[in-house]
């Protein structure tokens, strides 16, 4: 008997369970759903009629075993705030056709939903956590979807209709099975598909004007994104694709796209990115540590390559990123991008940020186009051996500015120019010769390119460079060359060959023609020297002329700023050998002022001689005595007479005296002077001052 009762009880319980699991259809009046359902264990529910926020509150709180809900025959009506103390006091007032927040939140077994007819909005987290929900149709009546509405559901595919104009944050975030999405809405909200690891296909509608912050962050299966040409896309938000699997993005047809947010494509396997010219703002770290990136662009209208923009992108083709129109390269912009061997800095760049190119150890050449040296942050090229990196500055006129600027000057500076275009007029002709000569003589010039004047790279501008320039003009040499860093001044070849003037007499107030003679051991085609006159003597302006046998020898000259030294150049446009006439190559007219002393020393120094092979030689100096009686110092009332001949200093005196012989280098020797003629031998050639009886006598020993 007891056994039979147990069997009957089991059958009754099973029957009850079967009834509770059956589909239930309810014709509802708003707010009455709870009274129409006596068994909350139902799994399938179909509702017709009208419903409001109170009915959805009942579903959320009580129907936890639902697997399928069909509300396509129901209409959501407005709900006023229920009275305090009532069963639904916690329910918020809601509008008609608004699916309330958390309506089906956390219903892990819910696999199928058909939304009410005419629904216009889907509330906050309405289906969040519905892990079994594989599909849902969002009606074309919906215009807004609140934050996290379908977050962490089991959706595998989703279509957002074009009627949706507002989306909250994370609407489909963390849906692990979501593989494809079609989005026709006008704005893709922040974090819409955050961490949807299976999402591999996204089709964007033409009307999408914004991709929100973090919209595809963590979508590791997403390799590409399809957007139609003519898209209305204006903005890509911060971290929009960070940590995603995106490999290629082509936004080049998005002519309305204006901004790309901070870290938008950071740490992805992206290889190529194309941005349209319309972009005006590129966010910080936009392509940060995209280690596979080989091709990307920053439109010129963006004006700046942002901080950290390409940091760590070892394969990035940096040379194709920078464009004329960019004015700023941000801090760490190309940090540790070690593969590129060259980079061109556009002429519009005026600032390069801290460590912007630090770690770019593969660099061989930087081409700098700015004509004003860009300002720099700290340690811009940290980690580079700058002296091994060429800095190519096509505008040679500003190369000196770079060479003098902090950090820039550490590079191996190159300049490109047309060799020989000394006056910067784009031509190579005799005006370059005269310009160079004027510079050597210290005359003002309208334009002078110092980098093309030192032809033999010895650190000097002199007659050697003039002769090389003349040869270039004769050969019609239009070559362009590259110059490395300036070298230290090189010493010329020394020679004992010299220019000299014979001692000569001249009276105060008179003029005299003087010959400058060449004592040479070989043939020369040009020369340069400086002739210094003593106080009271000067060379009459314009009087230095050719005295050689060469009719075409030119002899430009210039009085230097000290007022006593004249620089002279002798050359011919044919570079003919200078042939002295009776030893003379130059002739000059010397005038003695009325206050000229009885004697003085004429010195020839700074002699440069150029041979037929354009080899420069530094010649010897020479001096000559000029006075009323050659070689005589002064004869005064005390009877002293001081002069020199054949390396012998002579002092004639009528009395016993002591004297001091002072050389121009400051050394001095005491002399004993006896009555009569005193000769002092073995004195080195040079200019001396003899101090005797309170007076000084200048004398030249030769």
From TrEMBL:
The keyword Lipoprotein does not apply. InterPro entries: Dockerin_1_rpt (IPR002105), Dockerin_dom (IPR016134), Dockerin_dom_sf (IPR036439), EF_Hand_1_Ca_BS (IPR018247), LRR_5 (IPR026906), LRR_dom_sf (IPR032675), Surface_bspA-like (IPR053139). Pfam families: Dockerin_1, LRR_5. GO terms for molecular function: hydrolase activity, hydrolyzing O-glycosyl compounds. GO terms for biological process: polysaccharide catabolic process. Transmembrane segments: none annotated. CDD domains: Dockerin_I (cd14256). Keywords: Signal. Residues 415-482 form the Dockerin domain. The keyword Cytoplasm does not apply. Residues 1-23 form the signal peptide. PANTHER family: IG-LIKE DOMAIN-CONTAINING PROTEIN, SURFACE ANTIGEN. This is Leucine-rich repeat protein. It comes from Sodaliphilus pleomorphus.
């Amino acid at each position: 008997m007891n056994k039979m009762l147990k069997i009957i009880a089991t059958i009754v319980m099973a029957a009850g369970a079967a009834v509770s699991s059956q589909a239930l259809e309810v014709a509802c009046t708003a707010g009455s759903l709870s009274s129409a359902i006596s068994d909350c264990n139902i799994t399938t529910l179909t509702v017709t009629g009208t419903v409001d926020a109170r009915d959805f509150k009942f579903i959320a709180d009580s129907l936890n075993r639902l697997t399928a809900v069909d509300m396509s025959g129901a209409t959501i009506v407005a709900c006023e705030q229920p009275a305090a103390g009532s069963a639904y006091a916690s329910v918020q007032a809601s509008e008609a056709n608004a699916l309330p927040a958390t309506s089906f939140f956390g219903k892990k077994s819910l696999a199928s939903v058909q939304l009410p007819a005419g629904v216009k909005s889907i509330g906050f987290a309405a289906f969040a956590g519905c892990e079994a929900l594989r599909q849902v149709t969002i009606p074309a009546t919906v215009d807004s979807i609140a934050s996290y509405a379908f977050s962490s559901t089991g959706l595998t595919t989703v279509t957002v209709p074009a009627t949706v104009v507002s989306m909250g944050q994370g609407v489909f975030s963390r849906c692990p099975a979501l593989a494809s999405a079609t989005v026709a809405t006008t704005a893709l909200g922040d974090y819409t598909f955050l961490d949807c690891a299976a999402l591999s296909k996204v089709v964007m509608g033409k009307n999408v004007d914004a991709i929100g912050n973090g919209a595809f962050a963590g979508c590791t299966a997403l390799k590409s994104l399809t957007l139609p040409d003519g898209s209305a896309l204006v903005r890509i938000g911060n971290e929009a694709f960070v940590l995603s699997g995106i490999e290629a993005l082509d936004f080049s047809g998005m002519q309305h796209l204006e901004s790309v947010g901070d870290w938008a494509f950071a740490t992805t396997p992206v290889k190529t990115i194309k941005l349209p010219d319309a972009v005006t703002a590129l966010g910080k770290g936009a392509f940060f540590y995209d280690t596979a990136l080989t091709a990307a662009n920053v439109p010129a209208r963006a004006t700046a390559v942002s901080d950290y923009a390409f940091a760590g992108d070892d394969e990035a083709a940096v040379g194709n990123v920078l464009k004329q129109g960019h004015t700023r390269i941000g801090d760490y912009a190309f940090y540790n991008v070690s593969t590129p061997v060259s980079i061109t800095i556009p002429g519009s760049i005026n600032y390069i940020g801290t460590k912007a190119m630090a770690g770019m150890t593969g660099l061989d050449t930087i081409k700098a186009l700015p004509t004003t040296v860009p300002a720099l942050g700290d340690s811009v090229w940290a980690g580079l051996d700058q002296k091994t990196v060429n800095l190519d500055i096509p505008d040679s006129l500003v190369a000196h500015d770079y060479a003098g600027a902090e950090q820039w000057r550490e590079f191996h500076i190159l300049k490109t120019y047309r060799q020989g275009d000394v006056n910067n007029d784009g031509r190579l002709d005799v005006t370059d010769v005269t310009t160079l000569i004027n510079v050597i003589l210290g005359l003002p010039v309208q334009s002078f390119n110092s980098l093309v004047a030192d032809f033999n790279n010895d650190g000097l501008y002199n007659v050697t460079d003039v002769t090389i320039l003349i040869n270039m003009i004769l050969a019609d040499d239009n070559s362009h060359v590259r110059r490395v860093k300036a070298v230290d001044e090189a010493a010329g070849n020394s020679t004992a060959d010299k220019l000299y003037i014979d001692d000569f007499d001249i009276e105060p107030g008179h003029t005299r023609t003087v010959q400058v003679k060449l004592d040479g051991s070989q043939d020369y085609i040009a020369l340069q020297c400086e002739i210094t006159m003593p106080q009271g003597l000067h060379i009459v302006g314009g009087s230095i002329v050719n005295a050689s046998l060469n009719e075409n020898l030119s002899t430009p000259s210039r009085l230097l700023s000290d007022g006593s030294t004249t620089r002279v150049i002798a050359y011919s446009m044919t570079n003919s050998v200078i042939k002295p006439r009776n030893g003379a190559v130059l002739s000059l007219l010397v005038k003695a002022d009325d206050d000229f002393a009885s004697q003085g020393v004429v010195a020839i120094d700074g002699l440069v001689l150029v041979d037929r092979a354009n080899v420069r030689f530094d010649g010897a100096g020479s001096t000559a005595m000029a006075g009323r009686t050659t070689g005589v110092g002064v004869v005064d009332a005390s009877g002293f007479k001081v002069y020199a001949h054949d390396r012998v200093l002579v002092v004639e005196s009528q009395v016993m005296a002591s004297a001091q012989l002072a050389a121009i280098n400051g050394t001095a020797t005491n002399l004993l002077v006896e009555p009569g003629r005193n000769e002092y031998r073995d004195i080195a050639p040079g200019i001396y001052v003899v101090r005797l009886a309170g007076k000084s006598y200048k004398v030249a020993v030769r």
